[in-house]
Amino acid sequence: MQPAPVLEKHLVFKPIVTGQGDGKGAAAGKTGMQTVEQKKLQETAKGDLFYVQIIGDGKTKEGNNDAAKWSIQFRDLPEVVQKRPVTSRLVADIPIVDSDPITAMAGLGYSYKSSYYLTGHRFTHLNTSLLLIKAVMPQTGESPEHVSDSEDVVNGQLVDPSGSYLIQASIRVQDGSKVELMNRATAELMNLKETLKGVVDLEVGDRLAMDTRVR
């Protein structure tokens, strides 16, 4: 399959401390999340406070999106590495409809903290998604809700001054409690690692660096 261009704006949100917001504002009904899904997200956190990101798809030279489509992205703390030779954690992506991201998250009890872009390409191999990306800072004065086109982002300041790309290989498993599915996904990732040996070394990421809990 031909690589697909990637241009995403990531908005980072932090939960408001209890007493400053109850997370049940009027905007909560405009995120596209039903009450059951809200409870599921809260139960997933298990009492911990997590940073949450909002992802906006931007315009690329190959694409022609009329407007950014925003979604809530939740990433749990990865499991202990010793269990498997790959990183495993619960993920959730929930679309936002009929609301801007700042208003939607304020209604859920979150405040905006910072933003950055990811730009690059996505490759697909069997069930594996391969992301080849760079992180770029937004232009000075750019509002969080604005998503620039690819040319503006390419000329932005890189988070990593070396200009190196980040490669992420991942497989989404519908039910992580099913051992057979997890083992098949793990085996496919390990086969890909062996195939790419000598070209790029795929390694398990730092678990603490991927910890999204609020400290």
Automatic annotation (TrEMBL):
What this chain does, per the entry, is described as: Component of the Mediator complex, a coactivator involved in the regulated transcription of nearly all RNA polymerase II-dependent genes. Mediator functions as a bridge to convey information from gene-specific regulatory proteins to the basal RNA polymerase II transcription machinery. Mediator is recruited to promoters by direct interactions with regulatory proteins and serves as a scaffold for the assembly of a functional preinitiation complex with RNA polymerase II and the general transcription factors.
Keywords on record: Activator, Nucleus, Transcription, Transcription regulation
Q: Tell me the name of the encoding gene.
A: srb5
One Gene Ontology cellular component term attached to this UniProt record is: core mediator complex
Q: Which InterPro entries match?
A: Mediator_Med18
* Organism expressing this protein natively: Ramalina farinacea
- The main location is nucleus
**Record keywords: Ribosomal protein included?**
no
* Subcellular location(s) per record: Nucleus
Q: What is the lineage of its organism?
A: Eukaryota, Fungi, Dikarya, Ascomycota, Pezizomycotina
Q: What is this protein called?
A: Mediator of RNA polymerase II transcription subunit 18
**Self-association or partners: how does it assemble?**
Component of the Mediator complex.
Kindly list the biological process annotations in GO that this record carries: regulation of transcription by RNA polymerase II; termination of RNA polymerase II transcription
**MF GO annotations:** transcription coregulator activity
